[in-house]
Amino acid sequence: MPTLADLQPLLALPVAGCLGAALAFRPRRRGTPPRVPAVIQTQVILAVVGALVMLVVGASMARAFGIVGAASLIRYRAKISDPKDAGVMLCSLGVGLAAGVGLYVVAATATVFLLFVLYLIESLERPTFTLFELTVKTRSMAAVRAPLEHLLSRHHARAELQHLGPEDVTYSVRLPIGTHLDALSDRITQLDPAAGLRVDWDHKKGA
Question: Which domains can be identified in the chain, with CATH numbers?
Answer without folding.
Answer: 4-123 (no CATH), 129-203 (3.30.70.240)
